[in-house]
Design brief:
By secondary structure, this protein is of the alpha/beta class. It folds into 3 domains: 45-173, no CATH class; 177-302, Rossmann fold; 307-502, no CATH class. It has 17 helices and 14 strands. The protein has helices spanning 6-17, 29-36, 45-71, 77-97, 103-107, 110-133, 142-173, 186-199, 231-240, 255-265, 306-341, 390-397, 405-411, 433-436, 453-456, 466-481, 485-501, and strands spanning 178-183, 204-210, 221-222, 225-229, 245-248, 271-275, 289-291, 294-300, 347-353, 359-365, 415-417, 427-428, 431-432, 449-451. The strands form 4 sheets. An 8-stranded mixed β-sheet has the order 3-4-2-1-5-6-8-7. A hairpin with a 5-residue loop joins strand 9 and strand 10. Helix 3 (45-71) runs antiparallel to helix 4, helix 11 packs antiparallel against helix 12 (390-397) and helix 11 runs antiparallel to helix 13. The radius of gyration is 28 Å and the shape is flat. 34% of the residues are buried. It is a multi-pass membrane protein. InterPro entries: Bact_transf, EPS_sugar_tfrase, Undecaprenyl-P_gluc_Ptfrase. It holds the Pfam family Bac_transf. Belongs to the bacterial sugar transferase family. Keywords: Exopolysaccharide synthesis, Membrane, Transferase, Transmembrane, Transmembrane helix.
């Protein structure tokens, strides 16, 4: 049976097939047109569903408390509050059992309103049964329960109609569609495209295909979708315009060819799915996920997405603002010391690789003499480097020179925790990093950070050997694969200790 362990297999073979990041590939005219088209903002479906559930439960609970306050004289809050909250919780469970909290359900009219009305009625009936079984009938108003039941149905119908209008509007604007491309071509891709159009046209914006074949098996247009280039072109395409989903249309039996495709694509921050529409093997339903009605195998997911992306954004902003407030005296003293020691600007700006290989401009306190600044990091700083000032040696050793990057975090270019961004021309043993290390660009699948797993494990500072940069990249990839908010918090707490105990390579 064909089986792919993407994390292991792609890590082992990335160097052989990964695209070089040193130059920009020329893409087809059609691909360039797509890239030039303005991209509107999208909203993750899981975020919409989560917010919709929370708002719905809050409205039902608020309605219960309002009716209780207006109708029930001398109501015992210690009795009504658990009953209201418990009923709302049971109601939410039943709404999910009835599959009413899905984007497809939100678009429907009769189906979702009838199901939520029935589920809410059952939730209230279960609460009435609970009141009866616990012999609390004298403590709870029957009229209140009936009014809450009827009022809840009216509220739910009105809420779902408003939600339906909003989701349909976002759908028409394309804000709910995943920007999708297909890897593969020919008759197999044609069948896949038709299935997507039949079952997922509202959720997928299909741009075209990428296929390495150039013979009759891979025509320039398949089912109305243009061929945009080879698979290696997809790397450049996805770095210049957002791509959410890549569907590989190849038979499961073509294990070697599938693996070759995946080892090229794994450096991208996208969801990768292997279509099962050509497979003669039948698996249990739990083995599949779905794009519309199309069965697919999950090969790789974006490392941080949906609610995790929201949580990390909030974490970054809160930590950055707090750090700026607490560390502002140190930053002011550092700026004054730099000005007193040598002429020139306080800050030093440098282009570096950011998320998805894009270029960002990061801020640092200037640690070198003005006439010896190295904006391209052609030569790494070494011990007792004559280019570094006295103040510079101290702030580099203590990483105070990195504090201005808190402003990069507030701008959304950096995270507090993530792989450290490297200068574009940084080298180890006279080789550019991406030439020296297998799968180097996979570390750019998440936003770079001010500190990271590599740094707290001692891999900070000078990376003059290939072994050092390989160790840093390996730690970065470990962080990406094992990311969690708790891991970010742990790294932040460990960073001050590592600055003291693991600073032998920081000059």
């Amino acid at each position: 049976m064909f089986r792919v362990d993407p994390k292991q297999a792609m890590l082992e073979h990335a160097a052989k097939h990964s695209a070089s990041g040193g130059s920009v590939r020329k893409l087809s005219d059609r691909a360039e047109q797509i890239i030039a088209t303005p991209v509107g903002s999208t909203i993750p479906a899981t975020v919409i569903v989560g917010v919709a559930q929370a708002v719905e439960a809050a409205l039902l609970a608020l309605l219960g408390f309002v009716i209780c306050r207006l109708y029930v004289q001398g109501a015992q809050i210690e009795v009504y509050a658990p009953l209201i909250l418990g009923t709302c919780l049971v109601g939410n469970v039943l709404f999910n059992v009835a599959r009413t909290h899905r984007i497809a359900a939100y678009r429907s009219l009769l189906a979702q309103t009838s199901r939520v009305a029935a589920a809410w009625s059952l939730a209230v009936m279960l609460s009435i049964l609970g009141v009866f079984l616990f012999k609390a009938g004298d403590m709870v108003s029957r009229v209140w329960l009936i009014v809450w039941l009827v009022g809840g149905i009216v509220l739910l119908v009105a809420y779902r109609l408003a939600l339906r209008a909003l989701v349909r509007r976002w759908t028409a604007q394309g804000r709910l569609k995943r920007r999708t491309v297909i890897v593969g071509g020919g008759k197999d891709a044609e069948a896949l495209i038709e299935q997507i159009r039949q079952g997922a046209s509202n959720d997928v914006e299909l741009f075209g295909l990428f296929d390495d074949r150039v013979d009759d098996r891979s025509p320039e247009v398949v089912a109305g979708c243009p061929k945009l280039g080879k698979v290696v072109d997809l790397i450049e395409f996805a770095r210049r315009t957002p791509v959410d989903l890549v569907i590989v249309s190849m038979p499961l039996s073509a294990e070697k060819r599938v693996l070759e495709m995946l080892t090229q694509l794994w450096v991208l921050p996208v969801d990768i799915r292997l279509s099962a529409h050509m497979s003669q093997l039948k698996f249990t339903s739990k083995a599949y996920s779905y794009v519309g009605d199309v069965q697919v195998f999950d090969i790789a997911d974006r490392p941080i997405s949906d609610w995790n992306l929201v949580f990390k954004w909030v974490f970054d902003k809160l930590v950055a603002i707090t750090a700026l407030i607490l560390l502002s005296p140190i930053m002011l003293i550092t700026a004054l010391a730099i000005k007193l020691e040598s002429k020139g600007p306080v800050f030093f700006m440098q282009n570096r690789h950011g998320f998805n290989n894009e270029q960002i401009r990061i801020y640092k306190f200037r640690s070198m003499k003005t006439d010896m600044l190295d904006h391209n990091a052609v030569k790494q700083v070494t011990r007792d480097d004559p280019r570094v000032t006295r103040v510079g040696r101290f702030i580099r050793k203590s990483s105070i020179d990195e504090l201005p990057q808190l402003f990069n975090v507030l701008k959304g270019e950096l995270s507090i925790v993530g792989p450290r961004p490297h200068a574009l021309q940084a080298k180890a043993e006279n080789q550019l990093y991406y030439e020296a290390v297998e799968g180097y660009f996979a570390r750019h699948r998440v936003k770079p950070g001010m500190t990271g797993w590599a740094q707290v494990n001692g891999w900070r500072g000078e990376t003059d050997t290939i072994d050092k940069i390989m160790q840093r990249v390996n730690h970065d990839l470990y962080y990406i694969e094992h990311w969690s908010l708790l891991l970010d918090i742990y790294i932040v707490l460990l960073t001050p200790l590592s600055l003291i105990s693991k600073n032998e390579n920081a000059y």
